[in-house]
Amino acid sequence: MLYRPLGSSGLKVSVVGLGSWLTVGNAVDEPATRRLVHAAFERGVNLFDTADVYLKGEAERVLGHALRDLPRHRLVVATKCFFPMSDDPNDRGLSRKHVHQSLAASLRRLQLDYVDLYQCHRPDPDVPLLETAMAMHDLIQRGQVLYWGVSQWPAARIAELHALCAREGLHRPISNQPPYHLFDRAVERDVVPTCQQLGLGQLAYSPLAQGVLTGKYRPGEPLPPGSRATDERQNQFIGRFLTQDHLQRAQRLVELAARHGLTATQVALAFLLRQPNVASVLVGARDERQLAGSLLAIDTQLPPELVTAVDKVFPA
Total domain count for the chain? Predict the structure, then answer.
């Protein structure tokens, strides 16, 4: 396993992390999650990412159960808050009240005393930025959170937040978690340069575009039985990647990778990891075989001619 600093902090994370969106506690049940988490840990994965909103807390609960017999000091556990957890008007957003109460609930579900990384799942236009930053600062001062970050924040908002924290003497965020994959490289334009300048690292989620970049879905053919696209528990968001254009480009990736003795998965992940601001790619494996396929990207060095060819098929 390789490890990278998360932003300008001293926290080291595995370059492949295990995510839990749409998988843990859902398509992957509790016993299977435990096997998957332990297999990942044994291969050197130390970053385990989740969020309170995933299955309304069930993903956190199942992940916490899987992590409880692993050495806590070797784990980097990340979760998030923002989205509504009930009909209560205060049970959402990034107010001080919701941030503090959400963390308390996440810690109970995860069976932890603290989380290593607490992330604001989206920006909240209804809450003053200073209120959110102070809430995160408070949690760090209490020792319930070690570092904090954001997820899917635009570059301008990240810059505003960083300047505010510097001005007020508050703990600064160290990470951003964007959707980042070959089909969508928009963060390379302004989010990555801004984060690089300000010391935030990227945790790329959905780096395989929900599995479409593996090449398993072929244009003009039926969806593979048992795949995410056929599973109603997971297929709410994959449709946008199942167009003929997306599928044809994914098959082109398979062909380019094969010329160099690689898989499309290796190339898709290694292409993102070429970016030094990417600390980790968060993969959503359903089983140990899928996890092993993703971990092959760790030592994959892409030849320059392959990088050029992929760049043409998937322009930024």
Answer: 1
- 8 A C-beta contact, residue 176 and residue 150: yes
Q: Is 297 exposed, middle or buried (0-12, 13-18, 19+ CB in 10 A)?
A: buried
Name the nearest CA neighbour of 15 among 30, 31, 4. Answer: 4
Q: Kindly indicate the confidence band of residue 224, based on its pLDDT and cuts at 50, 70 and 90.
A: low
pTM: 0.92
Average pLDDT over residues 97-116: 98
Looking at 54, 147, 205, 217, which residue is catalytic? Answer: 54
Per the model's pLDDT, the better-predicted residue between 185 and 55 turns out to be 185
Q: DSSP 3-state assignment of 282?
A: strand
Residue 278: give the domain boundaries: 3-313
Q: Alpha carbon of 54 to those of 81, 84, 101, 106, 299: distances in Å?
A: 10, 11, 17, 11, 31
Domain of 174, CATH number, reads 3.20.20.100
DSSP secondary structure of 201-248: EEEEESTTTTTGGGT-S-TTSPPPTTSGGG-TTTTTTGGGG-SHHHHH
DSSP at 173:
P
In the residue annotation, 54 being an active-site residue is answered as: yes
pLDDT band at 244 (very low <50, low <70, confident <90, very high): confident
User: Longest C-alpha distance within the chain, in Å?
Assistant: 57
User: Are 77 and 117 in contact, with CB atoms under 8 Å apart?
Assistant: yes
CA-CA distances (angstroms) from residue 115 to 121, 138, 166, 269, 304? 15, 14, 23, 26, 39
